[in-house]
Design brief:
This protein is mainly beta. It has 3 domains: 1-91, 2-Layer Sandwich (Phosphorylase Kinase, domain 1); 326-584 and 853-859, Neuraminidase (6 Propeller), CATH 2.120.10; 585-852, TolB, C-terminal domain (Neuraminidase, 6 Propeller), CATH 2.120.10.30. The chain contains 10 helices and 53 strands. Helix 4 runs antiparallel to helix 6 (200-216), helix 4 runs antiparallel to helix 9 (269-281) and helix 6 (200-216) packs across helix 8. It is globular and about 85 Å long.
């Protein structure tokens, strides 16, 4: 029975119909409890009355609900209401690929962009053992922003026989045995059409049929009857794709997917996705042409690899050429670049092994967690290591790898993991050594390490491990031991929310030396093999770093510059350099009053949004890139998309409750705070009086601020101070004060949700009493804001994948997901951080950091 607008179906209110088909009707509905709109697929009566089919459906739908990928629709619930089964799922603002194909073939770039996303979603499903079985244009949605969502995983097992060429054919045999024909006629694989056993390669064939249709505007297999269409799938090849408009590598991808024999298709769908992603990224290069190739055509099963390998090599050469033209080297001895990693994503760390030819690196490809890979100079491929998810920190001369197991971001730029060691050759599981380790490097003896540990939200450098030598109230990165083992070089960053800082050294006695230049961005460091210089990547202004060198006497020079962001990873004994060319993007998106869609509010090249006004009409933006200038810049921007207005230098932390003031901080003088008006008025200066302070925020009354500060080597604690100055007053025990977000104070100003010892989210009462853990909270959780009535706390966990906002009921500790964020293209996304929301919860803003890497071995740098 159709559902009418305004009716109730289970816990949902029906808004109106979205469509109908053989698998049932789909409605737009609202979940009043979570305050979101969604889609409900109500299944037909024949499904409800067939217990076997219903059981198969529930099993398949629940398997699909475990898939967590931006190109696969999210299933919220599989349920039943008054005997009628239904699926509650993500609501997509867009149209089906079938609708998009009504006007004929798609433009080439659009077709490749859509195909790459479909393949990425399929690959993720296949890696989890889930096969679609009914892939067709009707089951692919494309949002208005061009993001792809694949629908109806596993539902092929449910559909009943119909009479048209576009519907399912099913026999009465179990779906997992030969003899069952299942799939949509015209998009079935030959093995499906013949009723033979199927696996993930069957989806590849269906995908090939879709790609063919996107490129040609006609179906690969379509006859006057279903039987004739099935026969054509089994015995015939479709007409060739036009060689004058479609690049040869793409035509070969289509042919490989449409191979009749399953073993002539891809060994893994991930390889298919990678080929499409590379082709998408290189489409504008001259090495990809639309005309026919003069190269003789190799045997069918070996078509793809040599051609794409050549294209990628030429592309890498072009990128290297663009880089070395910017070199400061003079004369004919230009540096030579050889690219060694070719997938899309983020390279976290990379090191040469002792042979100088093998390279181990940790990378998060295509939005997946960081994993270790191995390659050799000259290879086109990298092999994943059979280890738990980990990143490489250091490789000793004795052949031991120091790895960070489970490495994840715990704050902006700051990562944590479990330090472990494993032989380079493998053969044993990692031996765990320490937890909460940010950085580590082997000493020359190959037995001991220098480590940086996260202790109560501070970075503690131990030289060697177990002997604390220096504590930073900010954070420490890229520790590297000199060749003689007597000195450790590192970057000391004064703010945990930024990567500005100083190049510094420490010796075995604990003597610290800080070189005078404070860089706007500094990451990546290694010693020259002779120990005479420290090489590092840093920028005095903005985000585009240069490769620099510093002698221990303090003489600095620029070794190499390029119109991109560089990150030095390692230097081999023979002087070859391992360097990462990065494409950074830090931006922000918001959901605004009266809107369910997101609006990109990024202003310049590195936009961070710490706060939003209570009415949702203004966001505070910190610009930390090239556009922000050497001292960074603070802007306020209307959320209606109007231009931003610059109001101050420095870094912004939060806005007062009345929206009239923004609290800012200098990037170099961390003990100085400035209260800046958003309209007319004069700034107010505050000097903390207790040293460097971090995470400063307003109390609700706007008359006081609070911040975290550490005196000497003591852990941080919270201090309160009037906006008119005066003495700072301690308001917490030691060990409190990490990752405070703008509205961490309760509406009545009597409680603060703050990170305490062991990364616990604690409730601090300003009226006295012992701090207590927030009920229902987890480690590394941050408070975003309180609800207006003080009953709920909204939180996030930095490093969550996907990123979420949680709502915790402070009376009973009940915890639920309130919002979830899925970047459309996850490749290179390091993290998504919800940062601020309005009191009514109707508007919120989040910041994302994306970094795509190209890893090179460089010869000839001096």
């Amino acid at each position: 029975m159709p559902l009418s607008a305004g009716s109730t179906f289970g816990p949902y209110s029906i808004i109106g119909p979205l469509g109908a088909g053989g698998m049932g009707a789909v409605y737009r509905a609202r979940d009043a409890k979570l305050g979101r709109e969604l889609a409900i697929k109500v299944l037909p009566e024949d499904v409800a009355g067939n217990h076997d089919r219903l059981a198969r459906f529930e099993q398949e739908a629940r398997s699909a609900s475990l898939l967590n990928h931006p190109n696969i629709i999210t299933i919220y619930e599989v349920g039943e209401h008054e005997g009628t089964p239904y699926i509650a799922m993500e609501l997509i603002d867009g149209r089906s690929l079938r609708d998009a194909l009504e006007d004929g073939h798609l433009p080439l770039r659009k077709a490749i962009a859509i195909a790459a996303q479909i393949a990425d979603g399929l690959a993720a499903a296949h890696e989890r053992g889930v096969v679609h079985r009914d892939l067709k244009p009707d089951n692919v949605m494309v949002t208005r922003a061009g993001h792809v969502k694949v629908l109806d995983f596993g539902l092929a097992k449910l559909a009943a026989p119909q009479q048209t060429d576009d519907t399912m054919v099913m026999q009465r045999h179990p779906a997992t045995t030969p003899g069952t024909i299942m799939g949509t006629v015209g998009y079935m694989s030959p093995e499906q059409a013949a009723g033979a056993e199927t696996n993930y390669r069957s989806d590849q064939f269906s995908f090939g049929a879709i790609l063919y249709e996107m490129l040609t505007g006609r179906r690969a297999f379509h006859a006057s009857t279903s039987a004739e269409t099935l026969a054509a799938i089994i015995r015939d090849d479709p007409a060739p794709v036009d060689a004058t408009t479609v690049p040869q590598p793409l035509r070969w991808i289509v042919e490989r997917c449409l191979a009749k024999a399953p073993d002539e298709r891809y060994d893994s769908t991930r390889d298919l996705a990678r080929d499409l992603q590379r082709l998408r990224d290189s489409l504008s290069e001259p090495t990809i042409t639309s005309g026919a190739s003069a190269v003789p055509r190799p045997p069918r099963r070996r078509l793809l690899l040599p051609i794409l390998a050549g294209a990628v090599l030429l592309l890498a050469g072009a990128g290297a050429f663009a880089l070395y033209l910017q070199s400061t080297a003079k004369g004919p001895a230009l540096p030579e670049f050889r690219r060694i990693a070719f997938r899309r994503g983020y390279v976290s760390s990379a090191r040469f092994t002792t042979d100088g030819q093998t390279i181990l690196y940790g990378a998060a490809w295509e939005g997946q967690p960081i994993q270790l890979f191995s390659t050799r100079v000259g290879n086109m491929t990298s092999e994943p290591l059979s280890l738990p998810l980990a990143d490489v920190l250091s490789i000793s001369k004795t052949g031991q790898i120091a790895v960070s197991v489970g490495r994840r971001f715990s704050e902006w730029f700051v990562t944590n993991g479990t330090l472990a060691s494993v032989p380079v050759g493998g053969g044993s599981a990692p031996r765990e050594m320490q937890t909460n380790v940010q950085e580590a490097d082997w000493l020359p003896d190959g037995q001991n390490l220098v480590v940086v540990r996260n202790v109560e939200r501070q970075s503690v450098l131990e030289f060697p491990a177990g002997q604390p030598r220096y504590t930073s109230s900010g954070w420490i990165s890229h520790v590297r031991v000199s060749p003689d083992g007597g000195t450790v070089a590192f970057f000391d960053h004064p703010l945990r929310g930024a990567d500005n800082g100083w190049l510094s050294t420490i010796d075995r006695k604990g003597a610290i030396r800080r070189f005078p230049t404070i860089y706007a961005s500094c990451q990546g460091l290694a010693w020259r093999p002779d120990g005479k210089e420290i090489w590092y990547t840093a920028a005095e202004v903005g985000f585009f770093t240069q490769l620099r060198a510093m002698t221990l006497a303090g003489k600095e020079r620029v070794v190499f510059r390029a119109p991109t962001r560089l990150l030095l990873q390692d230097i081999a004994p023979d002087g070859r350099v391992l360097i990462d060319s990065q494409t950074p993007q830090i931006g922000l998106a918001a959901v605004l009053p009266g809107s369910t869609g997101e609006r990109d509010l990024s202003w310049l090249d590195c936009s961070f949004a710490p706060d939003i006004s209570p009415d949702g009409k203004t966001v505070v933006i910190s610009e930390q890139g090239e556009g922000g200038g050497p001292k960074y810049s603070v802007y306020i921007r209307p959320t209606d998309g109007a231009p931003a207005a610059r109001i101050a230098d420095g870094f912004a932390w939060g806005m007062s409750q009345d929206g009239k003031w923004v609290i800012t901080q200098s990037g170099t003088e961390a003990q100085h705070l400035t209260i800046v008006p958003t309209g007319a008025g004069s700034p107010k200066e505050i000097v903390s009086g207790v040293g460097d302070c971090v995470w400063p925020q307003f109390f609700p009354d706007g008359k006081r601020v609070f911040y975290a500060a550490a005196i000497g080597s003591h852990p941080t604690r919270l201090y309160s101070q009037s906006v008119d100055g005066g003495k700072a007053v301690a308001i917490s025990p030691e060990g409190y004060g990490g990752s405070l977000l703008p509205k961490a104070v309760s509406p009545d100003g009597k409680r603060i949700a703050v990170n305490g010892p062991q990364q616990k989210l604690m409730m601090l009462s300003l009226d006295g009493g012992e701090p207590r853990q927030v009920p229902g909270s987890v480690d590394d959780e941050n408070a975003i804001r309180w609800s207006a009535d003080g009953r709920y706390l909204f939180t996030s966990v930095l490093g969550d994948r996907p990123s979420r906002i949680y709502r915790i009921d402070l009376q009973n500790g009940q915890r639920q997901v309130w919002r979830e964020f899925h970047p459309g293209d996850p490749a290179g996304v390091i993290f998504v951080m919800p940062t601020a929301m309005t009191p009514d919860g109707n508007s919120y803003v989040y910041t994302y950091m994306k970094m795509e890497s190209q890893l090179f071995v460089v010869e000839g740098l001096k």
